[in-house]
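Deliverable D2.4 — example input (structure tokens):
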């Protein structure tokens, strides 16, 4: 549950596009992230010249990490913005 005093960024729209996370590169950069006050955390990531969104959530007593497809920034950036603004 979001605290009334929290000023972090929150995802208000989940596009439901998740695949199991598979390590594909040695290095990964988190460009932006949602607030950690919620149960599910989202990260805008970049690796190998492509961007993707990572969803981290609890599941069956363990942490589940899922990812969107990897695309160029001009495709993932607008999706990230819509997720934060609540636009479908």
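Example output (designed residues):
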């Amino acid at each position: 549950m979001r605290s009334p005093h929290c000023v972090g960024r929150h995802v208000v729209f989940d596009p439901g596009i998740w695949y199991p996370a598979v390590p594909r590169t040695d290095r990964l950069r988190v460009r932006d992230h949602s607030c950690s006050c919620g149960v599910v955390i989202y990260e805008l990531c970049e690796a190998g010249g492509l961007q993707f969104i990572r969803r981290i959530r609890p599941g069956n007593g363990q942490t589940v990490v899922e990812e969107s497809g990897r695309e160029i920034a001009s495709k993932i950036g607008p999706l990230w913005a819509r997720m934060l603004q609540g636009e479908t």
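The longest strand covers residues 50-59.
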